[in-house]
């Protein structure tokens, strides 16, 4: 049994090194999937602006990542569109307005405060309050329901017996 333990111990010692090696080998592949040098603008200031705008826009595929962080094909296309608008000399507001007109406020990672967003964020609280109110009134109605009717008197029992005989 001793010869079997030695290879297992060796494998246990080598496992962290293997994991580090595999992650080092895969890291360049992951980086290239997100940042394609061909889509970057030649002017560093324009590129920084494009990245800043892209970090405010939601990837419509991933939905929890910005288009700058996503490796999805649609995010890549949106990055190109943002860079085209930046290269044309449009302002950040013009680019953001164009994106919102095209895709709606959902494309913003942090949408502006409006009646719709307030309603969206307050719905869980409103639903909880509605449920508690309904439960409260149902409990009160049940508690206020009349008790069982009083027992019949002797006259009522006699009258009932007479009616049931007929």
Automatic annotation (TrEMBL):
InterPro entries listed in its UniProt record: C-type_cytochrome_biogenesis, CcmH/CycL/Ccl2/NrfF_N, CcmH/CycL/NrfF/Ccl2_sf
Keyword Transmembrane: yes
Region feature Disordered, mapped onto this chain: 146-166
Top-level lineage group: Bacteria
Transmembrane domains' residue ranges: 118-139
Gene3D superfamilies hit by this protein: Cytochrome C biogenesis protein
Biased composition (Basic and acidic residues): 154-166
Keywords of this entry: Cytochrome c-type biogenesis, Heme, Iron, Membrane, Metal-binding, Signal, Transmembrane, Transmembrane helix
Domain CcmH/CycL/Ccl2/NrfF N-terminal: 24-163
Matches recorded under PANTHER family: CYTOCHROME C-TYPE BIOGENESIS PROTEIN CCMH (PTHR47870:SF1)
Physiological role: Possible subunit of a heme lyase.
Family membership: Belongs to the CcmH/CycL/Ccl2/NrfF family.
Protein name as it appears in the record: Cytochrome c-type biogenesis protein
């Amino acid at each position: 049994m001793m010869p079997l333990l030695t290879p297992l111990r060796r494998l246990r010692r080598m496992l962290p090194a293997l994991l580090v090696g595999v992650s080092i080998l895969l890291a360049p592949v992951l980086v290239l999937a997100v940042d394609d040098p061909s889509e970057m603008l030649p002017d560093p200031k324009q590129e920084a602006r494009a990245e800043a705008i892209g970090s405010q826009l939601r990837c419509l595929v991933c939905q929890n990542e910005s288009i700058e962080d996503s490796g999805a094909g649609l995010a890549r296309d949106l990055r190109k569109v943002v860079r085209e608008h930046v290269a044309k000399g449009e302002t950040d507001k013009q680019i953001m307005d164009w994106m919102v007109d095209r895709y709606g406020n959902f494309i913003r990672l942090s949408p502006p405060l409006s009646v719709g967003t307030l309603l969206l964020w307050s719905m869980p609280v409103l639903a909880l309050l509605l449920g508690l109110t309904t439960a409260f009134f149902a409990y009160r109605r049940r508690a206020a329901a009349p008790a069982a009717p009083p027992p019949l008197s002797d006259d009522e029992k006699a009258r009932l017996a007479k009616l049931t005989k007929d």
